[in-house]
Structure formats: structure tokens, C-alpha cells
Amino acid sequence: MKAGENLPTVDLAGVRAGYGSGEVLHGVDFCLAAGEFVGIIGPNGAGKSTLIRVMAGTLKPKGGTTSYPFLETGAGRRERARNLAVLFQDQVGPLNITVREMVELGRCPHFRPLQWRPSPRDRQSIDRALDRTGTSDLAERSFADLSGGERQRVLLALALAREPRVLLLDEPVQNLDIRYQVEIFEILSELNRKQKVAVAAVLHDVNLAAQYCSRLIFLRGGRIVAAGSPRELLREDILEDLFEIRVEVHRLGQSRAVVIPAGKLPG
Amino acid sequence: MKKDLRLERKAGLSRRLFWFLLLLATLGLAGAALVLGSVSIPLGRIPEILLRSGAEQGGNSPEAVILLQLRLPRIIAAFLVGGALSVAGTLFQGLFRNPLVEPYTLGVSGGATVLIGLGILIFGPDVLLLAPLLGFLGAVGAVSLAVILTGRSGRLGVERLLLIGVMISFVCSAALVGLVSVAGLDRFRGLLYWTMGSLAGADPAAVAILLPVVGVSFALALGRAWALNALALGEENAAGLGYDPEREKRLIILLGSLLAGVSVAVAGVIGFVGLLVPHLLRRLVGGDHRVLLPAALVGGGFFLLACDTLARTAFSAQGIQFPVGAVTGLLGGVIFIALLSARRAR
Amino acid sequence: MGDLREADLEEIVRLRPNLILISKTGNRKAVAEALAKVGLNVKTMERPNTVAGYADFIRELGLLTGREARARELSEKIRKEAARLQARTAADGRVRTFVQLDAGPVLYSAGAGTLVGDLLDICGGENIVGDRGRAYPALEVEEVIAAAPEVIVVCVMGRRGEAAVRDWARFPWVPAVAAGRIHLLDPDLICRLSPSLLQGMEQISKWLHPEESVP
To answer: What backbone phi and psi angles, to 5 degrees, belong to A21?
Structure first.
């Protein structure tokens, strides 16, 4: 199963999923291909986080199937963890461990059964992850001491340490300064282009998403209402439908567009 | 909560220093505990006594018996119980991601006390002979109940578990008050002493039970160190790292309850150790469970040994054997508050 | 008489006893006054902590209950026996004794200021607890061992008492253990305020000085 450009990595078919007795996703078909950078966009409550969870395998769907074609059949949890990294930012509190120790955690799936400390190979990956996220100089500091932006980057390093082929992120740049938002997008973008890591991220900022993602998914009310390239999807009618506000889309040159909110919808 | 109480990371050398000091202090303390007591046995004679005791015929020399049958088991038991409670506290604090959780939170002490109390109510004070067994069963029973009640949907929600555990503790307290009102305080005097916790009953048999149980549980817990670190990131992130959160949770609860249960069986309810020591150590050595768990074992053992030695020698001339639970509470509380204030002043 | 428990006032009133005895210890005053108000015959008395005081107690009780003669007889008997034992002690000397009141891991004993302590003193025992300034001091096992008692009286009921007696076998060089002079005493005999105190006295004196056969 060698890397073709469009090799599917995570494949959702007819997935219905929810928590408790409710249902949040009502029949979603979605396939993440290798090398894609997909932005998942939608209003609150649309089921974006749920979608990520199902893709990551941490939430079992009530209907439909989730499959991982890029893994060998019968791959277990750890095998999946080695190749697919998911990060839920908000669950991580101010832990009093060093940055390096945190990123070491990212190598867990690669540890042999009784392995106690990271092996030299592990250390390589860790160093590389730290390097890529620009957090090498933070390595010996306590995670709890870091600023929001630094923490996000460290968590990203944690995800990268395992050298995954797929990266799933739930609002990775929420609450960050624009500078850090851009930094992280740049890192993700480089990963995506150079290492061909498939990235799927739930994003709030349509403009940034449009700038960096190769594909966008609009999610609303538990269904995918639109999917396609940013060029295709950044249209006033689609956006107004999605967010229920008026928007203006301004094209800047050939390939870029900017979305500006323009007040409430009439009626 | 976030900013003021943090400690900067110590370099690797400092960690070695920490361990060296801790182990040295523990050995020193053990030596002191061996020497102290109403029968004074000078330190210099101890090795000689220990060596000769093997060869002694018939009745061993009084000093050898005091050392081997009374003091040494008590010292070892104090160390193991303190260690067990601290490790259990660390496990639970890591699991619930709550620094106020202690080993008894899930109803361990309540269950143990109520079961023994019921036994006394039905069968009379003689039941206290079986206190260790009943205590253990009650402790493990209470936790099992909490787990069963929480995990009905298959998923063991830690917040829910905590709530249910606390509720069970309350119910047990109320039940105990009820029992006492029904049968009169007299009958339960023995139980009252038991709930105050004491290491006076630690004999070689107790050590023979403690050593394997604590040893194995600790080893298993240490094996889950990475899992605990991963869980600290949140259950879903841990799952993303390849762990099965449900399985890990259950295993951790099992180990923690075993440790707490066996402690309660041997020594009654000794509070505060399982709360203070992990909390303190987290500040000192950080949240990595590979270090935290062994540190808890030794640190907790040291702390309880110190408290117990103090409890039995401090006022023995006046005929008071302080309950060790009171010493842990007082000493621990003072240390804790002092440290908190010192941090803030910085 | 007997246990001084929490009083269920209503129950007491309902039973309409002829006489209520309340010990002076604790804050029973309020209870005493409340009951007196209802018209019951209430008498507060000190709990005796010496044998002599106990004898007085019996006499007072006799006066109150109208059984003077019997009470006086019992009281005299106790006094005489106490005197006899004290005289004998002067002649035969004292026996180092440890009285164990509790089966639990911590050993509680009775000191000089208690009824049990006084009893022991009269019967010719030398309480190893000595003068610790507390009525019921707590001791470590090794303290008892260090004091090398010649007799150990275990004052605990039931199986726990038996287990406690057996436990002492761990220390065979202790004089009491070596000589097999560990005795189980029913706590009711000495810990309650009943005529059985006399029995208790007899028991203890027999154990301490077995060479004296009391016919």
C-alpha cells in the first residue's frame, strides 16, 4: 500500500454519531486523502468536534462505518496511534512536566512493551518535532509556565513526535494571537507539503482556512452541506447559507479571496 | 490556581540529589525508630543483636524479640502503609486530575468502617478480631459499588465516579452514626480506636501480607506510569495516543483500592498521608509518574514512619500513645500550610 | 446502676423509677435538674474510685433504697476483706502486675486514681504503670515487657480476651508468661459498680498470692 497521491486515509461512510442518546452527525460521508489539508468549517453545534472524534476513532459511530484504508487490516489501537495523531487542546491543563517530557509522550505508541525511556530513535523524532514547531529552546521548561501560544506549539510537537501520516486537529488556533495562528498554519502547511501528512482541522477563521487548506468542508446541523476547494466554496450564497449572516467575498488577485461579514440577514 | 504555586523545573542533577537525600533520610529515620522506644537499645548493639538472634536457643533475648517482633515489623509496616497510601493517592490524583483526591475518597474508609460496625452490631465486639479482613472487604466493596454504579453505560466517567464515591462516603458516615445510636457508643469503642488508625498491631504476619501486596501493586502501577501521564492530557488524547482509557481507568482504580484496602486492613484509617504526600511531591518532582510513583512510595513511607515514631515516643512517659492519624493530620497540615504560604510570599 | 449511657429522658420518666442515681461526672447536672423537676427522686453521687469509697457507696445506696442492713453488711464485708488483704500485703510484699483493659493494638491500663488501680493496690499488686499522671494510660507493648510484670490480668471480654491472653506467649521470658500467670478477668467483676466487686477482689488476690488459699 504505497503512497499514491490520493490514497484515502480515513474514510467515513454514512456515519451517524452522537453522545448519550442524542445524535449529532446525521449521515456523513467523508474521505480524507493523503496529502490533503482539509479545513472543517461550520457554526457552533454543527458537529465539527464530533466529526474529528469519529475520524480519530475515539468516538464510536452509532451508524455507518469508519475505516482506515491506509492502515493494515486488523490494525489495533496502537498501530493506528502510530500513524494518526489527534489533538484535543482544551482537555490539557497546566501540567507540571517539562516540555520535553510532554513531547516524549507523543512517542508512546512507538514504545516497545516494557520500554521506560525514549530510545535514541525516539529522541530523534522528538528533537525533530521540537525543531519543526520552534520549541526546542523551551524543552526544559515546565509546560505550565508557558504562554498560550507556546503551549499550542508544544502540543503540536507532541502530535508530530510520532511522525503520523494523518493529523487531526480540533480548533488548533483558537484563542491565539494572529501571529501564533499564522505560525501554526505555516508549520501545518509545511508538514502537508513536504511530508505529505494529511491534515484535517476544525477551524473558525474562514479566511485563514481558505488560505492554507487544499479543501474545505462546510458542516451544518450534522451534515456536510458543501465540500470543495476554497475557490469553489468561497461564494456569498454558500457562506450566507452556512453562517446565516450576510457576507461579502472580495477576490484579491488570482488565487486569494477574503470573506467579510456584512451584517445580519434580512428577515 | 495557575500561576502562583508553580515550581521551576529542577535540572537532572538536582533530581539525583533529591533521591539521595530522601533515601538517606529514610535510612536515618529507620535507624532512629529502631533505637527509640521505652526500652532503650543503643544503636551500636543492634547489628550484634540481630546477628545473634538467629543462633539464640529457645527463648530469644528480650532485646532481639523487641527488635524483631515489635519494632522492626512496626517500622516496615509504617513504611509500607505510608508508601501504599501515597501511591494510591498519586494514582487517584492522576486519574481524577484533582489534587484534592485522596485514597479514601471513593468510600474506602467508609466501607471498611461500616462493615466492621455492622459486624459488631450483629455479633458483638469479638468481631474486631476479624477487623483486618472485614476492613479490607468493606473497603474494596465500597469502591466496587462506586464503580458499578458509575459504569452502567459502559463508560466510566471520572467526574461521576468521584461524585458517587463521595456520596458513598457520606452514606457510610451516616450509617455509622446510626449504628452507634442504635447500639450505644460502648460497643463501638473498639471501632472508634480502629478508625483513628494505629500501627501498634503490626506484627510479622502483617508485614508478610503487606510486603507482597504493596510490592506487586506498586510494580504494576509503575508499569502504568506512561498511561497515567497520557491520561493527564485528557482521556481522548490518551486514546489518541493508543491507550484504552476505560481499561486504564479500571486498572488504576483496582490498584489504588488494593493499596488503600490493605493499608486500612493492617492499620485502620490513617488519613492525610495519601493526600499530602502526592500533592507535595508533585510540586517537588513534577507530574511525570515515572518519577512520581517511586517518590510517593519512599516519601510516603518516610512520612508515616516519622509520624508513627513520633506518636509512640513523644508522650509515652505520660502514658499517651498518640493516634498516628492525628499526627499525620497535624504535622501534615502544618507543613502543607507553611509551604503554601512560603510559595505565595515568593 | 451500671453503665452511664446517654439517658433517654422520656424513657426514664415513663418508667417512673423510685430512685435515680446520677454520677457527678460530666454535665449531668442539667439532666439531674430536669428529672428532679418532674418530681422524680434524683440523687447525684460521685463515682467511687477507691475500694473504701466503694464501700461507702454501697452504704449510701442502702440508705437510699431502704436496704440498710444488707448494705451495711456488704459494706463491712468489703472493708474487712480489704483490711485483711492490706495486712497480708504488708507481710508478703507486692507482686508486679499489669492490668490490661483493652484488647486493641494499643494497651490501656488503669492507673492509681482508679477503682481498678486501688483494687490492685489492696490485693497486693504493684502496678507497673506507676505514676503516669493519667487515669487510664496507654502503653506500648515493649513498655510492659520492659517492666517485667510477674502477673498479667487481662480484663477483656469474650474471644478477644482469650486472643489477648494467647498473644502474650510471644514473649516467653516475661516473668508472667514464663510462670503462666496470665489471667483472664471478666470486666464485669471490677469495672461495674455491683456487689461482684467482692468476687473480683477475691479473684485478683488469689492470682497475686496463690499460696494463700482462701477457703
So the answer is: -95, -5
Instruction: Give the separation between CA C183 and CA C156, rounded to whole angstroms.
Output: 10
How confident is the model at residue C85, as a pLDDT?
Answer: 82
Test B321 with C160 for CB contact under 8 angstroms: no
Write the DSSP assignment of B220-283 as a string of letters: HHHHTHHHHHHHTT-HHHHHHTT--HHHHHHHHHHHHHHHHHHHHHHH----SHHHHHHHHHHH
B244 chain-A contacts, CB cut-off 8 A: 77
Give the residue-averaged pLDDT of B305-330: 85
Q: Which residues of A touch B97 (CB under 8 A)?
A: 93
* Amino acid identity for residue A252 in this structure: L
- B151 SS3 class: helix
Residue A86: which H helix or E strand, with range? strand A84-88
Nearest CB to C143: which of B69, B124, B316? Answer: B316
Backbone angles phi, psi at C42, to 5 degrees: -115, 135
Non-local CB neighbours of B67 within 8 Å, separated by 6+ positions: B34, B41, B46, B49, B50, B53
CA distance A107 to A104: 5
CB contact under 8 A, B236 and A95: no
| Closest alpha carbon within chain C to B201 | C105
pLDDT of residue B76: 92
How confident is the model over A226-241, as a mean pLDDT?
A: 85
Write out the three cell numbers for B288: 511525570
Q: Which residues contact C89 (CB under 8 A, 6 or more apart)?
A: C122, C123, C124
Q: What is the pLDDT of residue C28?
A: 63
Could you read off the pLDDT of B107-154 as tens digits, one per residue? 888 899 899 888 888 887 788 888 888 889 999 999 999 988 887 766
Question: Is the CB of residue B65 less than 8 Å away from at least one CB of chain C?
Answer: yes
Q: What are phi and psi of A253, to 5 degrees?
A: 70, -155
Provide the pLDDT for residue A144: 85
Taking phi first (over 0 means left), then psi (-120 to 50 degrees means alpha), and beta for anything else, what does residue A40 get? Answer: beta
pLDDT at site A179: 83
Q: Which residue of B has its CA nearest to C157?
A: B126
d(CA C41, CA B292): 67
Q: Burial level of A80, CB count in 10 A (0-12/13-18/19+)?
A: buried
- As a whole number of angstroms, the longest Cα–Cα distance in chain A is 64
Residue C197 contacts residue C79 (beta carbons within 8 Å): no
pTM over 0.95: no
Write down the residue that cell numbers 484563542 correspond to. Answer: A175
* CA distance linking residue C209 with residue C206, whole number of Å: 5
CA distances (Å), C59 to each of A37, A220, C17, C194, in order? 102, 95, 20, 13
Q: Which of B292-301, B312-321, C51-60, C122-131 has the highest average model confidence (pLDDT)?
A: B292-301
C193 vs A179, higher pLDDT: A179
